[in-house]
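dumping this here before i forget
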Amino acid sequence: MDPNPATSVPEVILSSSGRRMPLLGMGTATSPLVGSGATKSAVVQAIELGYRHFDTATLYQTEESLGEAIAEALSRGLIESRDELFVTSKLWCSDAHPDLVLPALQKSLHHLQLEYLDLYLIHWPVSSRPGTYEFPIMKEDFMAMDYAGVWGAMEECQKMGLTKNIGVSNFTCKKLTDLLALANIPPAVNQVEINPLWQQKKLRDFCKSNGIILSAYAPLGAKGTVWGSNRVLENEVLGEIARAKGKTVAQVCLRWAYEQEVCVVVKSFNQERMKENLDIFSWAFTEEENKKLSEIPQSRGCQGQDYISDQGPFKTIEELWDGEI
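structure:
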């Protein structure tokens, strides 16, 4: 991990391309959806504060707002070049078909007003009926994913220079193993739910051994979303450590992820909290605190069915997650 002198956010080098990714990013997913003006304003503020990594997706409907914010930051001289930013977007399930990957990426680039992405992810390891951008996905719209065809199309997008890196989201160890067996370009990143209450040690170890960087969504438990809760922010152990260190529970969660060498994508449109989220790199946990953190009882917050209705071709949620709990 290397420091970025412009923003003081450490970076990691992605093995498949050699490009640098800031280990703290700003998410743009909101539930319920907020106005485009609020998203644009928050992103501009974030750039002013020093954020350089931004995460969006077709499903989030925030690509256009993010693109407008980047254009404004450039026009105001907040950044000198788009190259100073690391922008991630994601392929939705209904576009996860070999012939639809390139058009979907081109559409995202058009919305973002960009010539390339830094990272393009397969949002979920499932496909759905083309042309449907529903949330959650209905049972009748599910289709089996052609992993070889879809990943081959992702690889072509990287070769074309439309994205500098490709990766996945919500992939288990088993699905990553299957993908690595057929990939010519391995996934650079796997974005999954990670927080102190769902530490994913098995997946962290697997990804580390295979040169895949883990990126965490819901690092604070996704409070305010349809599937999230207050369980992380209200955890007694996290609260105790936060009080002892004079930090917020959110800062404790983000620092914990950083110490696990996990990239964190955190969403806040509140300026003070955006500042607090950046203040996690100049302090560390004691050995005793790390022991307490490692002993927190584990349970997943995102159960999958909150994104996927009735699982389609999957009989149970465990089958969707390969039975990996």
